[in-house]
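Incident log, entry 3
Record: JmjC domain-containing protein (451 residues)
Problem: checksum mismatch between cached and fresh output.
Input:
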Amino acid sequence: VDKWEVSKEDIIKFSHRNLHFLLPWLKDFHHEQMQEKSIEAMIKGVDASEVKVTQADCKEDERIYCNNCRTSIVDLHRSCDKCSYDLCLSCCRELRDGLSPGAAAANSMVLTQPGVEGTEDLQQSSHDNIASPKPSDGQNNVLMDNAVPVNIASPKPSDGQNDVLMDNAVPVEDNVPGLKLWRVNSNGSISCPPNAFGGCGDSVLELKSLLEENIISDLLEKADLVVKDERMLEAGGSKCSCFTDSSEMTNGTSYKLACRDNSSDNYIYCPNARDVQNGALDHFQEHWLKGEPVIVRDVLELTSGLSWEPMVMWRALREKKDKSEHERLSVTALECLAWSEVEINTSFFFNGYSRGAVGPDGLPVLLKLKDWPQHSSFEDRLPRHLAEFISALPFREYTDHKSGPLNLAVKLPKKVIKPDLGPKTYIAYGVAQELGVGDSVTKIHCDMSDA
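Fresh output:
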């Protein structure tokens, strides 16, 4: 990957920026933990300052998930000493509020239409789902009026499955065996859930920690001191430098992409890749702070011109002899018309991508590799193509997956398990005109929660 360096002064500046925008989250996180410690004090009948939280038996390279909502647990949580059931503080709060834990905002989930590709990523955070993992590709996750959710603590659904939730439904608690049995005790403690929810139902969940005592409060105190000395960064308060005070465009970097009356939001910032290279980060951040999309044009001008033709990629894959023969010569693809997985020869897949293929019923074969490579890193399988991809990325301060100073995943301690930062590819067969079923092309979309 091409060399890219940031000056020491910029690293300090970017660190201050990260700190400024993370501080409100850290305060909320600390407040949530202090609330749980106060509840623990009431349960134990002691003063909050006397609460001693047991440290969980967890190695640095392990990650604990909430057994109910499947989110990662960072520090305080409740755990069963008998069956190792773990419950995050958000689910604890929802249970005490009389809600089905993990389903507090089920009624506010995004509506998606049946048959629309890409719904795998149109989901709320896991606390808005009912103990359900992320839906798989092609699944329609629809909220309508009148059904009962049936995906409580369900395994990952298969591709193409419709998961229908409806509004006038009988409450979840009345339809799921065992949910009425999982309630907060009168003193605020929470029992391990019954077997139907993955617990043992035989003990009380104990408050546990992953971090050393007071580490969050100490961190908050230090962060507060640093941020107080810094200039305040306001989101969305100033007029974008794309326009003059009379709302006329000042340059050609914004394109009109909508025609809404009485709207100042019809333009999208579309800088050229070379302009970005020469310093447009501050301007980009004006839009990014407001949650506005940014389109960077002509990024391929920054690359060496390495071919992404299917057979070029196939030859590059074949060169990597360090992988097992099976992993080099076969891939697991999705057959989009039947929504089924098939194991296929890698050469056949890339040949079919170039030339097209027809099935026995006369319909085109529509195969798709999703999140590929599935079992190894892109760098291991296609190192030259990775370098080409990275060289095309704009705003490397955010997008560089190894050294971007504004990429928060880069800041995680070395021993912490990081999310797979990719890149991953979607490689899909296509036809000139969509068939109306089995559309293989993943639509452009925005994930509603971090992977």
